[in-house]
Amino acid sequence: MDFRLSNEQELFRQTVREFAEKKIAPRAREIDRNAAGIPAEIIRGMAELGLFGLTIPEQYGGSAIAGEEIVTAMLAVHEIARAELSMSLPVYYLLNLGWSYLVSRAGTEELKKEILPRVAKGEWFLGIATTESSGGSDLARIKTNGAKRDGKYFLNGEKYFVSGVEEGTQRGGGHCTLFRTGNFDDGHRALTFAYVPIQARGVSSARLHMMGRMGLSTGVIHYDGVEIPEYYRLGEENKGFYTAMQGFNAARVLVCAACTGGAERALEITRDYSTRRELFGQPLVKFEGISFEIAEDYAKLEMLKHTLLKTAWMIDQISRDANAIPRQEINTHVAICKMIAPHLGLEIAKHAMMHHGALGYSDETPLEMLFRGLMSYVVGAEGGTNVMKIIIAREFIGDVAIPY
Ligand SMILES: Cc1cc2nc3c(=O)[nH]c(=O)nc-3n(C[C@H](O)[C@H](O)[C@H](O)COP(=O)(O)OP(=O)(O)OC[C@H]3O[C@@H](n4cnc5c(N)ncnc54)[C@H](O)[C@@H]3O)c2cc1C
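Above are the sequence and the flavin-adenine dinucleotide SMILES. Below is the predicted complex in structure-token form.
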């Protein structure tokens, strides 16, 4: 047993940190204020470092190390999030990594050749579109219909609160989308998952105005008779719910890595500030009301990082051997991380803002951006907190704990 990262992983982490501190951190405030989105040169720089290809195999233009994809991706997302506290770029980035991981595993050869090399180059955006107005937590009630005719699916419906609608429309790419291919009464057992290009004929979108992550669009997508070929399908027909869940496991780990990266940076900012700030004749950090809170937050974050690393490692084990770790165990670990990380991150951001007094409520520090950005994951992006609790309760208590 060895809890350390390898020398290569440490070196990789250091390389990403240097790039992110130099090229991204100075522009974080601009990204948050810029409705036009993330500067193209930042995406290009990340692509030149190979950062968009971490979960994509070499034959499709990526640099995935078999059996280490998620740990490596997690290290990169953590570092990008330390530098860009609004969470716009980290989320843009992690969506690409998480959903290309899924396409690499569940996509057809034709689909992989068509989209993955462009995602690996940072040219195209790849995201996820499952949420509908009937409730993002209750995917069994998805209404978007995907009738099949002559080997094609024809989509009609609407998705809500989808990230990257403008980025996809401008740059190209699309979303892994869940739609109904069977009876409504069959719930989640009649859903199919497929890639849908956002520039396809019949797709239109509109931006919604959110409280944070201002550099990344969130919006509505309408499908009006959108035709997609069968080879865009991910996994088996009518088993899309289960295929999507594999993608969610990877994406949720990366979401948590974004939370830990942001929270780690917030802790450093508040440690440095309260060491400099003098009140009542001594540095603020000399008061235990402050130093103990920082110590507690640090300890909780360290514990979360360990569980997260173990969870990423577990997902990577099934890349090597599909039966290495029971799926149920992975689902539970992912849910534990996703239940805790956004809330802990938000708590740390809030404490750091409070240590700064009025300054913490201003845009003189990046802390309020982090607070707004993390709130997206607290309210439910990539899965609501109570949904994570249902997964955990089902594992430990059994179905008896579930009210339906
Ligand atoms: C900024 C942002 C970006 C997003 N990006 C995307 C995206 O790219 N693609 C996409 O598909 N979706 C996206 N979403 C939507 C996200 O996936 C949903 O918000 C999430 O699935 C929850 O769905 P909902 O918002 O409809 O809330 P609901 O499903 O209505 O849930 C409301 C609340 O009830 C709780 N709850 C649900 N079920 C239970 C239960 N059985 N018992 C107790 N409590 C329960 C939930 O935890 C939540 O707190 C995004 C959301 C945000 C905020």
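The chain has three domains: 7-125, 127-234, 240-401.
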